[in-house]
Amino acid sequence: xxxxxxxxxGTSVGSIDRIRNVARRCLATAxxxxxxxxxxxxxxxxxxxxxxxxxxxxxxxxAREMDVIAATxxxxxxxxxxxxxxxxxGKARSLLGHQVKILTDxxxxxxxxxxxxxxxxxxxxxxxxxxxxxxxxxVDENGDITTLGRGGSDTTAVAVAAAxxxxxxxxxxxxxxxxxxxxxxxxxxxxxxxxxxxEMLELASLGAKVLQIRSVEIAMKYGVPIHVRSSFSDAxxxxxxxxxxxxxxxxxxxxxxxxxxxxxxxxxxxxxxGVVAELFGTIAEKNISVDMIIxxxxxxxNGESRTDVAFTVLKxxxxxxKPFIEEVAxxxxxxxxxxxxxxxxxxxxGLGMRSHAGVAAKMFRILAQEGINISAISTSEIKVSCxxxxxxxxxxxxxxxxxxxxxxxx
Amino acid sequence: xxxxxxxxxGTSVGSIDRIRNVARRCLATAxxxxxxxxxxxxxxxxxxxxxxxxxxxxxxxxAREMDVIAATxxxxxxxxxxxxxxxxxGKARSLLGHQVKILTDxxxxxxxxxxxxxxxxxxxxxxxxxxxxxxxxxVDENGDITTLGRGGSDTTAVAVAAAxxxxxxxxxxxxxxxxxxxxxxxxxxxxxxxxxxxEMLELASLGAKVLQIRSVEIAMKYGVPIHVRSSFSDAxxxxxxxxxxxxxxxxxxxxxxxxxxxxxxxxxxxxxxGVVAELFGTIAEKNISVDMIIxxxxxxxNGESRTDVAFTVLKxxxxxxKPFIEEVAxxxxxxxxxxxxxxxxxxxxGLGMRSHAGVAAKMFRILAQEGINISAISTSEIKVSCxxxxxxxxxxxxxxxxxxxxxxxx
Lengths: 410, 410
Known about the structure:
Two copies of one chain form a homodimer. Chain A has 410 residues and is of the alpha/beta class. The first copy, chain A, folds into three domains: 3-174, Acetylglutamate kinase-like (Carbamate kinase), CATH 3.40.1160.10; 264-339, Alpha-Beta Plaits (2-Layer Sandwich), CATH 3.30.70.260; 343-403, VC0802-like. Chain A contains 13 helices and 21 strands. Chain A has helices spanning 16-31, 46-57, 63-87, 97-100, 119-126, 152-164, 197-205, 213-222, 245-248, 275-285, 318-331, 359-369, 393-403; strands at 3-8, 35-40, 92-95, 102-104, 113-116, 130-134, 137-139, 145-147, 168-173, 194-196, 226-230, 238-241, 254-258, 261-270, 290-295, 299-301, 304-314, 336-340, 343-349, 376-380, 383-389. In chain A, the strands form five sheets. Chain A has an eight-stranded mixed sheet with strand order 3-6-2-1-9-11-12-10, sandwiched between helices. In chain A, strands 14, 15, 16, 17 and 18 form a five-stranded antiparallel sheet that branches. Chain A has a four-stranded antiparallel sheet with strand order 13-19-21-20, with helices on both faces. The longest helix of chain A has 25 residues, at 63-87. Chain A starts with a strand and ends in a 7-residue tail after the last helix. The mean pLDDT of chain A is 92. Chains A and B meet through α1, α2 and α3 of A and α1, α2 and α3 of B. Chains A, B: One of its GO terms (molecular function) is aspartate kinase activity.
């Protein structure tokens, strides 16, 4: 007998028929003798409907009240799922964030889980019932309702799995697993049977959308195996687990791309100590995240040395960031500021990079062979990212996918 | 400075514009220096939408899960109202049943309030904010969500007012007060400026729909003055208060009618001790309420004495009640059982009846003058009810309204 957490996203509970399907799946697992905890998102479209209501009242709604409204989406789907399990002949009880209880900090709309009290789940199991937990929501120490941000139900699922010591956290979604790259861009993409937490974390950070980054972080921290699989089939999906020998043999596990960043070039700033610190200090103060940073070699002229500083920020942050960037550029006596939104970050990820030399060089060579110019590079122990013009997205992804042998193994 | 509870029903918060209107009204009251607690129902139509969802999953949904679903209606409207108050420049915080907290028994869908912890309301006021409380909902001692039944927001409002020692509980609705009778039946109906708890309780029990019976019971028990008024005007409505000398001078305060009952006649049962007890004992066991009871004089024949027993039950209970009634009628050797759904209960209510003789006789005379036959009578200290054929509803109500001088004082 295993203790299994099963998480179903908005599409999987998007209609009464689909909720019935979820109920049958949970009961099938329970019928195999397992204890089941179900985590559900709001029915697809419901969260948007609720937020729209709030936005009709006021343009910038108070975050506390927004969370009170948004949390009802999961409250309804949890109770409907419990009803569907009962209708199929099972026993089930819904549990909300304040009932479980999922204690978070007070950062409304993006709260972080601090602790989970699992006793309500265990007492539900003792009554022979399946516990259906509302995802996405928690409660702060004042008893105020909080939400975990978009995709927060993944985080609820993994955190609950960690708190109750579940054997596995199954994430049911509308795709059947984690792919070597986005199949809509590269038809040769294959389902990855097994991937390490570290690789999954890099892939999620670099643009793969299957799992929420924070849920992978929690799974890695507490060693909760995640099984990403389709809610519409019984096929095995992708296991996200601790790294082992077999995983290290694969040099590149996946290719990711991210079109959400824009490049900023602050050109011709004085090349003296403290300049870069001042630039990025100012941007960080405004709570704007900077990703890749490239400082060009300084060029001397008339005894004065000048350099270009380039970096990337989220496109959505750009309108807010521009005034600060230009202000600090002015104070640094920069010659010009340029923005480029026509870029994409293409990345390769793999545990095997640690023990295989020349992986980055091979990536650059593959891109060069396709005539793709690289405007920035960033690396970690298990990934290499290159910034290229976004018109090359498909070409770059397919070339890397083929070049690192990912297209062969189908 | 007064402490004022303001309750707004589903129609009053039925759209974003109406919620804004509610917000402005609360702020106007606060601007006069009062502390305000707002109680809101779900937006009109919302509770039905939610219950329909549950019924799509299963025909007879589990009451616990139904309450989890239904409670989201008030959760959303409370937060939207808080947002609207903020948008109008005020401070407000929503509070849910489990936050206030409104402790109830565990009778899902018809829970009774056991206690209200008011400290969250006071701490909200201390922050200079209006407390917006979700009506209709509570939480039992296990932390499970409960609801108080249809119209339960009235009960929430009065119970909260009693718990925090409010000076008045204002019930805002789509009519501008309590009327001497239903204006749609009798155009001469007038708004009653002031009525006693006892009279209001009788009127509510006898068919007037303005206030929920339990809310009046609580108001009477704790002496909370209720002010029933329109959410669309500033006019004074009806004050429901402790009785006083001025109220006792009015013989008849209002005329009510109720078409929700059906008459059952169990004819020709043996007239011996215990027969009636057996009949009504059996019905009561099935949790079916009986209202009026009339036992005809026994008629002897061949040394055997037989009698007819007639009573009324709710029409909605009749399908469920019939099998039990027929079973017990058989065991009592009754000669026949007849059902009559074409009846109406017409009632007059007034504190002054206590000190004025002949009120019932006058009622019978008025009905007789109109040629209306009375098939059953029931009286209390401050009301007289007559059962008549339902085709006479309008005629009876208008004749009584005029006959007791209620049409004159407009």
